[in-house]
Amino acid sequence: MNAVILQRRATFFVSNPINFNEDLLSVYINKFSGLGLLPSVNKGFGIKITPTGVEPQDIISLDLKKLDNTLKVSFGPDRVDVLSTKNDETLDVFLDRVSELSDVIKQICGSFNRLALGVNARFQMNPVLCQKSYNLLTKSDDVDPIEWQIRKVNRVPLTTADKKYEALINLVYSLSRNESLINLPNSKDSIVIEFDFNTMVGTPAIVLDSIEGVFWGYAKEQIEEGISNYKAIFESWAQLK
Fold first, then answer.
1. Are 25 and 60 in contact (CB under 8 A)?
2. What's the pLDDT tens digit per position in 41-71?
3. The whole model's pTM is what?
4. Could you tell me if 102 and 220 lie in one domain?
5. Are strands 112-124 and 3-14 parallel, antiparallel or unpaired?
């Protein structure tokens, strides 16, 4: 039983709001031009609240992506998301690209106020094992839900090697049963594991700058360990009568 990685996501929350105009778009596109990412500019409409009331506002968003859509950098008003859907890509390879992008994003967006790393992985299995997993996870055998979700959040301190800086990290784990359509019209059951690890709101920028590399490395290790552990658990439960 192997996990299929559906998506990897690294998020940089920025301190200065990103308000695009034509000049700024050119700066962003030029900065990323050497990374093989193609720009896609979208324009929409929103509202803003002013002392005199609510006013309409043009909203411009920018996506930079690979031609095959396996890698995308998406800019929002206060965050930058790096998304990868490449099935055979390791977290090491993805985080190498994230580190490269981080340097460019800092040049144009300034300091970060939060960091996050998320991974969605799917274990495909038969309905019997899906139900057995739920019963064992919840220590109950009198219910038979067709869909379910279990979520937990841990919080741990993370420290730089020189012990100078420390930050609190949220470790969010979510398991859910989903029916996915694969090779239509046949549907397959699966359990999806979502990892979302992020720094606490309010962490000083100087701490985030110092601890960024430690955060990516720690989050990667925890995600890989989590996938490996759940794989072993599901395989052992499959042997139970």
1. yes
2. 877 766 666 677 777 767 777 899 988 888 9
3. 0.87
4. yes
5. antiparallel
